[in-house]
Amino acid sequence: MAEATAADQRAVLTAERERVTNELVAMGVDRASYDDGFADSGQVTAERGEVDALVGSLRDTLSDIDEALSKLDKGTYGICEECGRPIGEARLEAMPTARLCIADASARR
Q1: Least buried of 8, 18, 33, 101, by fewest C-beta within 10 Å?
Q2: Average pLDDT, the chain
Q3: What domains sit in the chain, N to C, each tagged with a CATH number?
Q4: Is 78 helix (H, G, I), strand (E, B) or coil?
C-alpha cells in the first residue's frame, strides 16, 4: 500500500475511532438516565436492551478499528486474512476495517 494511501486510511480510521468513542461515552451518560421507578418497567427494559445492543455494536466497531490501526503499524493493512492477497483500494475506501478481499467476503455469505 502506498505511503500516502496508508496515511489517508490512518486519518480515516482515527477520525472514526474518535467518533465511535465519543458515541460510547454519550451512551454511558444516556444509560445512567433511566428511571428504575418508571411505571412501565417493560419499556425501560426494552430501552436498555436497545442501548446494550447499540453499545455492543459500537464496541465491535471500535475493536475492528483498533485492529485495522494495528495492521497499519505492522504493515499488514489491506491484506486479506483468508487468501493473503491485497484487498482492493475501492473496498478499503468503502470499508476501512475490511479484513477480507471481496471474493473471500462473498464466499463466507
Answers
A1: 33
A2: 86
A3: 3-33+41-108 (1.20.120.910)
A4: coil
Question: Could you tell me the three cell numbers for 100?
Answer: 477480507
| Residue whose grid cell is 496515511 | 7
CB atoms within 10 A of CB 28: 11
Phi and psi at 17, nearest 5°, equal -60, -45
CA distance linking residue 6 with residue 63, whole number of Å: 19
Q: Which of 28, 34, 35, 79 is nearest to 54 (CA)?
A: 28
| Cα–Cα dist 16/33, whole Å | 26
Band (32; pLDDT cuts 50, 70, 90): very low
What grid cell was written down for 98?
475490511
